[in-house]
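Sample pair:
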Amino acid sequence: MTKVMIAPSHLAKEKGAFFEVLQAAKLDLVYPQKNVQMTEQDILNEFHGVEAVIAGSEPYTPKVFETFSQLKIISRVGVGYDAVDVKEATKRGVVVCYVPGTNQEAVAEHCFSLMLALAKNVVSQHNQIREGKWPRHANLPLRGKTLGLIGLGRIGKAMTRKAKAFDLKVIAYDPFPDTRFAQEQQVPLLTLDEVLQRSDYVSLHLPATPETVKLINAEKLALMKPTAYLLNTARGAVVDEQALYDFLKNKKIAGAGLDVFEKEPPVGSPLLTLDNVVLTAHTAGVDTESRDAMALMAAQNLVALLKGEWPEERIVNPEVKEAFFSRK
């Protein structure tokens, strides 16, 4: 019986459709000992005999692959896979898959919640009212403002559609844009610098790659309006956090809404000391609907691979196919 680890803490007590798919495949399902995101050391302690994993954001490092040669499948419950050393996985014949098209609406909704919290000063008002104060000040509008999207993929497109309800003007930068969508939605495609210069709200929707690591650095932040807000629901690595802290502390930009961080959780980060930041715990893509959709597709991917099928459009490293099947 194939031993499968269900690693994401938010799935520890769930018994929905994804669980039924795994159970029907007669797999030996195991869970982490702690109900928190696993660290590398947790994986090293608990993955003995594990051949496949329903994976969260825990790190799959060269040491993990070296230690557990029996590991064959990493099925991500998410659309990002930067926590997995894909090159090392491929080298060792481990297939990595993900769940495209399952959580873009959740991320977009969450991003707007951050945007509104910043514009309407929600957190500060909440905290002051609890202290017995009554802080009545004019807040900021979204209507008529410019939303700049850095990335116009599935999430950027969901953002575009929702922005219309708020009467926001949308502009975008994408290195490989869907020009037809941009034309249909009347979204001007601009350079990265132009989007940063013109936007009142800048929202990041790019994967963490060698090309995007610290893409938003001091030089790029300096292009933003001092009244503008930065929103990051993509990956922490895309932003130079020290530079962002400096700009926020010195009021060179108005504020930031952050769901992702260079280090998670961001214990000791100076960003935690600022009052012009709204923080959430890498939960943008996980509402109850998207959670279930991602978990179900991740389970389907895993079971399909164990049956000898190859869900091509959901495989991150298709070049591993021959090596993967030769391991059976």
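The chain has a mean pLDDT of 97.
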